[in-house]
Design brief:
elongated; 2 domains; single chain; 4 helices; mainly alpha; 151 residues; two-stranded antiparallel ribbon
Length: 151
């Protein structure tokens, strides 16, 4: 009895784990994590060096802002509430959201273009309808021929 339950559990788990949606989700999470690293690098190494001089007017690097920091090591607060890191995460999120928005818009535009192209192509007629139209035309021709011979 316990063996049957175990086999049933393993079979159910295998069906769940190997479904296409679960595998697709796992791939999406892995790609998303890699994409997050790329975006973080873009923010840290490209965007922020352009923005930091503007923010330098308020003091040191904005990602090092902290409330209640009592210990600072190499210019970085080691304790307290690190507001700068939180703001950096918000900037990262906004950039990821913007990039995803642009990508989704591009994909939707391509889908709409495909739909318009598909709608523009005439659909082939149903063979049964074509055969019915030919049969109707033949019957009408036969009817005309028979009427002309009766006169």
């Amino acid at each position: 009895m316990a063996r049957a339950r175990r086999n049933s559990f393993l079979r159910d788990f295998q069906e769940f784990a190997l479904k296409g949606n679960v595998v697709d989700l796992a791939v999406g999470v892995i790609i998303g994590a890699a994409f997050g690293k790329i975006v973080s690098s873009l923010v840290d190494n490209v965007i922020m060096p352009l923005i930091n001089p503007v923010l330098a007017a308020f003091g040191n690097d904005w990602r090092n802002w902290a409330i209640g920091a009592t210990e600072i090591k190499d210019g970085i607060p080691q304790n307290g509430i690190r507001i700068g890191l939180f703001l950096g995460s918000i900037v990262d999120f906004l950039i990821v959201a913007l990039v995803l928005f642009i990508a989704i818009q591009a994909i939707q535009k391509l889908k709409r273009k495909e739909e318009v192209e598909a709608a523009a192509e005439p659909t082939p007629p149903d063979p049964a309808i074509v055969a019915q139209e030919r049969l109707t035309a033949a019957i009408e021709q036969l009817d005309l021929t028979m009427r002309s011979r009766q006169v």
